[in-house]
Design brief:
mainly alpha
Length: 191
Amino acid sequence: MRADAKRNLDKIVSAAAEVMAERGVSAPMEAIAKRAGVGVGTLYRRFPDRDSLIAAVGDHYVHTMAAALDEAASSGADAWNAIWDFVTWAAAPGRAALATALAVLPEEAIVDREEFARAREGWVRRFDELVRRAQAEGSMRADVGVADLIHLLQVFTCHPDRLPEPVASQPARYLHLMLDGMKAGAATPAA
């Protein structure tokens, strides 16, 4: 792929992610082309239909999450602070809006695609390694796993409309309270 074609592709996918975060996955293709600074014809040459563009946005999303996790994990912070930084970053309003937009799609539109599945599997594996590192360091509860953190992210990013009003009005506060409950020493004995 030529360098200018690659730049156009990256601009289109980034613009699509922004526009879909703002307006949902059914946002007009013209709005995406305009945000990317390309013509509608260029958009359709790269992505002949909405599904192919949505798939590319899904791939972009999971790769962005993986890169952010890798950055947090290699930041020099201890594992718990790396988890805190990553979860807080992932739940930020712009990224949460994109996750919300993608969450309304049928699974086969994104999740069943090989590229997405491979990238997501790698991301989850690295996130699990970070959780285990935090537990080995003694900073995270031993009874919390990566699945718990992924579910927490899904609540705050994919389904914010289901949050009770007090939580929805201050999501960062409640996300931090829930993360605090995952720290070592926060566990209560099982009934």
